[in-house]
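Fill-in record for Carbonic anhydrase.
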Amino acid sequence: MRVGLRPFLRSIKVSILGSSPLYKSECSKSAASTTTISGSKLKFSGIEQTHLGFLNSSKSNLALKLKASREGVGLVQETKMDPPNLIKKSKDGSDSFTEMKQRFLSFKKEKYLGNLECYQELAEAQAPKFLVISCADSRVCPSYILGFQPGEAFVVRNIANLVPPFENGPCETNAALEFSVNALQVENILVTGHSCCGGIRALMGMEDEENSSSFIKNWVVVGKSAKSSTKAIASNLSFDQQCKHCEKESINHSLLNLLTYPWVEERVAKEQSKARKRWIHHQES
């Protein structure tokens, strides 16, 4: 099967040594209203190069150097799988809901009841290893592409998988970032993007300083710095090629925006300092 999408991935990783605290849900018998990170030993692995993307760290300072891949990983294209059984559209929607109901009943019988102990533990607490910030595009589901199981990833989806800078003020995305980092203490933050992104296309098609009542345009303007750098580098390319470039560029800018949040920047700075001291000690010994 060949799907006309080529997801590409970038990540910034904060690793926590030892076990992560479990965040108790409200339905838990011993619910906890707050969780702190005091006493946790944190290890920032820097910016690492993996098969998911290209990121580099600098030993000389805290500046993070980001490198955009010119080609997507193509996880969907390179994966052989049976065609997914998609819910077909109907005029009144009745068939769609019938199919959805059957899927839920199948999940409950085959997966939920078959792994009841696991789901009961998840009902009491969650300790996901990843925060994933992904596009809301229906064709790019992070759990499907990356194989996440229940409890493994705290997922935030928005138009064009954007991370606004801290100074922009509160929104759903940075609320989820604060909760996952400070309360759940996730070890990794993964920003994913994809080709043919309608949100990026809307961003690139906007006029500078355009005033709009559109919720979409008022959101994607978060990526204006990625648009500016794309225009500076790829102004001689076609509009479609500029959009393709901006899809990658916006991820790099989102990674930089993550570092404008005090609780993320603090962990990065502490662990880079520790890594530098260990390196100096190793050289001296």
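KEY FINDING: Residues 262-284 form the longest helix (23 residues).
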